[in-house]
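Can't attach files on this board, so I'm pasting raw text. These are the components:
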Amino acid sequence: MTASLFSRLDQHQPSNPDSCSIRLNGIEHQVPRSMSVAAALLYLGQRATRTHPVSGQPRAALCHMGVCFECLVTIDGQQSQRGCMRPVTANMSIITTSKGQSE
Amino acid sequence: MTQIYDYLMVGAGPAGMAAAIEASHAGLKVLVLDQAATAGGQIYRNVSHASAAQQQVLGPDYGLGKPLLKAFMAAPCDYQPLAQVWNIEPHAQGFTVAALIDGRSVSFVASDLLIVNGAMERPMAVAGWEKPGVMTAGAGQILLKASALLPKQVVLAGSGPLLLLLAHQYRAAGVTITALLDTTPRSNYWRAMPWLLAGLSMPKQLFKGVWLSLVQRIRVPYFSNVTDINIVGNAEVKAVRFMVAGKEYEVPTNLVLLHQGIVAQTQMAQTLACKQEWSDAKQCWQTQVAEAGQTSVPGVQVAGDAGAIGGAQLAQLEGRLAAMARVKQSCTHSSWARKMAYLALSWRIRQLHWARGLVDRLYQPAPWLSTPTGTTVVCRCEQISAAEITDIAKAGCAGVNQLKAFSRAGMGPCQGRQCGLNLGYLVAQAQGRPMAQVEPLSVRPPLSPINLGQLAQAIDL
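---
Top answer:
C-alpha cells for the assembled complex are below.
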C-alpha cells in the first residue's frame, strides 16, 4: 500500500462510532461505515484492486458506479465482486487479486 | 405466489422516484428496484445522509433532491435497494425482472416496465487511462457525495458541464487542482452558435454554465483546446503529457480524473429488443421513445437519462409524464385537470430538450478522442489496442459485433460498456460509414454478474 490520494472532508477519526473494522488482505483497518468497498480501498491507500489477467498490470476502479468492472475483489470469500457496489460492513474480509490468480 | 405489480421501475434516480410517486398515489401497485444502498441516483446520491460540510461543498443544486427523496420514501410503493437486475424477459402477464438481492436471485413480475437506470460517463480512451490513479470525474463526485472523500491533488481533463462543476466544488473544498485540461474543440463553439437561442430560453442555467466555465480559466491552471493526452507512469500515474497548438506540455500528478459527457445506458432496453437509434447531436445510441417514453415494445417505457440525455430536472419531469401515461391506461375516465396537467408537462419537456441542444453541441467529443490510435487501450477488459481494432476494421468486418468475435474486444466483464462506442467510431472511420449504420454491440444476459450457484437457484424457482 502507498499513501492515499484521498482524504476525508471532515477528518474522520478511527475512534469514531461511525467506523467499523474490516480486513484488507488479512490486515485489520478501521473505515467509515458509509463507504463502499472501492472507496474504502482508496481511503486506505490501496491503489490497485486487481491484476489484469492479460497484461499482468495493476488496475483500479475507474467509474465507482458499477459500469467498468475494474474494482473486482474477493469479498468474504466470494470472487469477482464489484467493490463499488458493496457498502463495507463490520468484519468484512476484502482480498485484492494479485499476479497469478484469476480475476 | 408471486405478487404481480402494475408498474415496475428499474432505478431510483430523479425519473424513477418521480414516476413511483405519481403512479403509486394514483393507485397502481408499484415496485422500484435500485442498485444503490439509498435512493437518489447518481445526481442525488446519499443526499439524505450527507453531512453539512459535504452539502456546502456540493452546492445548492444537490440539496434539490431532498424534497423529492422525502416524497418518494413516503409514497405507497415497494422499494428494494441494493438490487442488481441481471435479467429481464417477457412473461405471460407482462415481464419478469430477476435481481440479485443479498446474494440470492429474486424474480418479480410486472405488467408494465419503466426503465430509468440513467446514464454513464462517455468512456475517454486516452493513452494510459487503464493505470491506477485514473478515474472519471463522475467517480470523483461519487466519492465526495457518498464517502466525503476529496483528492489531495488532481488533474482534471476532458470536456463538459460535470468536469467544470467538479473543478468548482474541489476548489471550494481547497483541493489543489494542478491543471484543468479542456479538450473541447474550438470548432464546437461555432457549431453550438446556432443553438444559442435555445440556451437563452433558460437564462439562469446558461448564466451558471458560462460563469462556471469562465471562473475556472481565472482560478485554475487552465489549458484549452488540449489534444494528445498521454498519462504516463509504470504501475501508477506519475504525470500527464498533452499538446496545445503544437506545443508539448507535461504536468506531474498521481491522480487524473477524466470526463467527456454522459451517454445513455441502453442495455436493459436492448435486452427487451426495444428499437435503438443513433443520436448525432448527443453522439450516442439511445432507445427510440414516443412522447411519454413508450418504446417499440408494448409495456416498456424509458425515461430520464436512460433515454435521451437531458439532466436531472428533465429526468424528473419525464418520469412523472411516463407514469401519468401509464395511469391513463388503467383509468376509464381522465379528468380535464389531469389532461391539462399532462399537456403542460409534455410541452415543458419538449422545451427543455430543445434548450439542451446548446449543451449537446458545445460538448460533443473531440474526434481524436472518439478514434484513438496506436497502443491506446480501447477494450480495457481484454486489453485490446486501438491499432489492433483499426487493423481488423480495415481488413473487413460487418460491424462491431463481428469485430468483437474477431478481436475479443467487448467480450470482458464490462460487456462492452467501456469500449462499445469507440469500437463503433473506429469501424465507422476505417470503413467510411456513418455511425448510424454501424450497429451497437448486442447485449446478452446476465446484465450484471451472477455466479453459477445463484443461477441454478434462480432456475429452480
